[in-house]
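Tokens in:
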């Protein structure tokens, strides 16, 4: 089954340009070089290179060999390079170091009606 491009951590701008140009699945990008993809989609060559690096990791063909081939430093640097998802609440994003982190399980819980509490209102 083809993997949809929306399942990859690609920037919203790049995703929009890819989909607008007819690239919907991973298989649609097979065989493209960064300059060819840039020409087809209107992305910069660097953006196209970043997209291809995300979709087709250079070091491995599957996730298992990716994990085995990485050091802890590689994983940490990769984690630090990813932008978190903002919650649109400055104080809450500050607590979460910029927002909800990608590639991690994040659970946010509270008492029923917590969104109406003075603490939450004060934060946001």
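Residues out:
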């Amino acid at each position: 089954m083809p993997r949809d491009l929306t399942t990859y951590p690609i920037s919203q701008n790049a995703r929009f340009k890819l989909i607008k140009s007819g690239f919907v699945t991973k298989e649609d990008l097979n065989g493209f070089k960064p300059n060819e993809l840039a020409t087809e989609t209107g992305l910069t060559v660097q953006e196209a290179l970043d997209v291809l690096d995300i979709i087709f990791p250079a070091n491995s063909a599957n996730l298992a060999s990716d994990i085995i081939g990485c050091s802890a430093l590689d994983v940490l640097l990769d984690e630090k390079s990813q932008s978190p998802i903002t919650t649109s609440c400055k104080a809450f994003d500050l607590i979460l170091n910029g927002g909800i982190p990608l590639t991690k399980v994040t659970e946010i819980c509270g008492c029923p009606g917590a969104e109406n509490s003075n603490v939450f209102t004060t934060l946001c």
